Amino acid sequence: MQLGACAADLDSDLPEDPELSTLRQEYVDSTNGLRSVNGLRSVNGLRSVNGLRSVNGLSTTNGLRTSNGLTTMNGLVTKAGSKAVGSLSVDCTGKTAGTTCTGKPDGLLSNTTGMMSTDDGINTAKYLVRCALPVKTSIRVMDYTGGVVTLNGELGLAPEWKEGSCSQACEEKVSACLMALTNGEAQHVNLELSGPFDALGTDSSKGYPYQEAAFFGNLFSANPQAYYCIGADYAVVGKKSIEHLAVRACKGYSDKGTGCPYTQVGLCNPTVSSTYEGVHMDNMCLDTGDTLRKCRDTDGGDRKWLYPITTHRNVL
Fold first, then answer.
1. How many domains, the chain?
2. Would the pTM of this model clear 0.90, i.e. be above it?
3. Is the per-residue pLDDT at 263 higher than 60?
């Protein structure tokens, strides 16, 4: 479903249309997939995800940091860095657009140049907010139709981003979250996430005993970087685990002829052999129990990636 809207309507401050907003919220709540524009395919809570379906933004020279040349990394619900325009709040949570709020941020969630300007972008925004903001925190903004929709937080990896800027640490945490949810085929996969920071913690549950991978990088940098290494329980040469991980991360992209957006850098943990298929290195990350930390990429240098997210599976 896609609803049209005139540019003049988007620029006006007409009172919110409750019926349109309800219709658009139903659309947002019912979507099972982000199909393009840096999009997640589906996320149904922490352990039930379908992952990234396509990543147009990863192949751009400016990544997610800019939209049509405009910097997007100010607060998610700010305009020109401010959370209000005159007497009107930008965030419409608990408010009415056009009367007590604008619902029109000018950064990544802009309804004219950002994610809220297309259906695919809206779906992407839905899951980006779930990574960045904590549970019981939401934002309510206008989409390209003029409808106003609520995007809910869940993991709380970067709560400061709601009304403040996103630092490098914020960028890397949210990037790792999006990458960890990757599934190029859009097949349902159960996951548990952990990370060397308070929002996730470093433990995995007994129901998800297998360390699958660590994802790290920065999708928001001028030259987007996206990496993963193979976790201890999936790094078993001669078994299908490595192939399963590669399929989950890349196959849907490869089938489309776009190439995998992620670089596999090798094995996360130390192994008897430092190569896999003659090209991969090992010991790419340090570990804290079941959770990986301080990772390095293909340059083989410093462990500069401090915010990897480890994925745990309930099956091999």
1. 2
2. no
3. yes
